[in-house]
Amino acid sequence: MGGGRYSSGGERSELADRVVRVNRVAKVVKGGRKFSFSALIVVGDMNGRVGAGIGKAREVTEAIRKGMEVAKRNMITVPMVGTTIPHEVRLKLGAARIMLK
User: Fold this and answer.
1) pLDDT at residue 33 above 90?
2) 19, 64 Cβ separation under 8 angstroms
3) Which of 47, 51, 73, 87 is deepest in the core (most CB within 10 A)?
4) Is 43 exposed, middle or buried (0-12, 13-18, 19+ CB in 10 A)?
5) pTM of the predicted protein model
6) Edge-to-edge strand order for the sheet containing 49-57?
7) Where are the beta strands (DSSP E) in the chain?
8) How is domain 16-100 classified at the architecture level of CATH?
């Protein structure tokens, strides 16, 4: 998991994955704080198919695993010419601004 290494096992072993961000979240309860983690994961086959997913759990490793599952389910195909995309794409989704170049 993470660091751009190739995934181990599963039916899509040719996918590379990268942990983009791990965020610690604190929920304040009567007895103190409960900590949980969210992880943003990106997976792809380095040939035009890419997916992103967010996983949430009480442990970092579990959040990463869940994020990878979501990313593999939400894969899209990005049209490519050679090793790059044909033109620059900019879009806004919610509060995020995305630029593919």
Assistant:
1) yes
2) yes
3) 51
4) buried
5) 0.73
6) 16-29, 32-44, 49-57, 76-77
7) 16-29, 32-44, 49-57, 76-77, 89-93, 96-100
8) 2-Layer Sandwich (3.30)
